[in-house]
Amino acid sequence: MLYKFKSKAAADLIMLQPNGQRMLSIMGKETAAPAGDKGIVLPQDMPAAISALEAAIVQEETQQKAAQEAALSRGETPPRLEGISLRQRAVPMIEMLRRCEKAGEPIVWGV
User: Fold this and answer.
1) Counting Cβ atoms within 10 Å, is residue 34 exposed (0-12), middle (13-18) or buried (19+)?
2) Is 40 helix (H, G, I), strand (E, B) or coil?
C-alpha cells in the first residue's frame, strides 16, 4: 500500500506504507486500518505535527550519536547507519506541512 498525501497548496507526497505510517504515528494520527487508511491534517494541527516530527528527528540523531560515542569509548568500530534516516524521510512532509499551514489548506490521504 502507498500513502498519497494531497493538498491544494502543495504537490502530492507519496510514501510506502511503513514510512507513511511512521510519519502519521509521530504526528499523533491513527495508523491502524481502517481508520488509518484515510485522514486529514487540519491547518491548526500542523504546528504540533511539525514539532513532533522535528523532535523525533532530534531524538533519533541523539540516539545514533550516543551509540557511536559508546562504541568508540569501548574501542569498538562505531555502528554503521543503515538505510535512510528519519530526517531524510520527514523533510518532505515537514515542508508540505509548512506550505499548507501558510496557505490554510488541509492535507488529506486515502481519499
Assistant:
1) exposed
2) strand
Sign of torsion, CA 17 29 32 107?
negative
Domain boundaries, given as residue ranges, for the chain: 2-109
> What is the residue whose three cell numbers read 516530527?
53
pLDDT band at 31 (very low <50, low <70, confident <90, very high): confident
What SS3 class is residue 111? Answer: coil
- φ and ψ at residue 31, rounded to 5 degrees: -120, -15
pTM: 0.89
Q: Are 92 and 57 in contact (CB under 8 A)?
A: no
Bridge partners (DSSP) listed for residue 40 = 108
Return the CA Rg of the chain: 16
Coil, helix or strand at residue 7: strand
Average pLDDT over residues 70-96: 91
Instruction: Report the Cα–Cα distance between both ends of the chain, in Å, rounded.
Output: 14
